[in-house]
Write a structure and sequence with these properties.
Blueprint: H1 12-23, H2 28-35, H3 39-45, H4 49-67, H5 74-99, E1 107-111, E2 118-122, H6 127-143, H7 156-168
Antiparallel strand pairs: 1-2
Helix pairs in contact: 1-2, 1-4, 2-3, 5-6
Length: about 180
Amino acid sequence: MPRNNIPWKWTAKRELAAMLVAQDELPDRRIAEEVGVGPSSIYNWRTYPEFMERVDGFVATYRDAIHKSGLAVVENRVKKLSKVARYMEELMEKRALEHGSPIIVRQVKGIGSGESFREVEEFPTDTGLLREYREYLKQVPQDLGQWQDKADGAGVDRLDELIAIAKRGAVMPEDGEK
């Protein structure tokens, strides 16, 4: 409830305060400093429905802008995911030229100590890169609504077909054959 039942009047300071409150980046004490009022003024203004309605309006505007820009837009996400996937592919192509395989990474380890110390090269599989690359390739169709998990019922018809084939003792047809 507003203090002293004083009617609400908009001023430039109150408008700025409503915008800063909606942004929710500063504590009220800092908002008061930015606006040039005491902290109790911000507290008091928050008791006015008109002030809070304006804050809610700013929040709605910010949310709408966020949903229409940046990574909230599917096309922007897909573009960024594609760019990261290209970087991974370039790295794998470079590794294929250097090591004969796109998924092998060269590591040098030191073993032994003193006179028996020596460096040893190892060429392990980069499972982390493979996992991330696979996840990026999965994320794009998910964002475009083209992905269906097998647990969601995809392949049930195929499963029934395979069970019927197994029961008959027949050889399973190759993909493309029926």
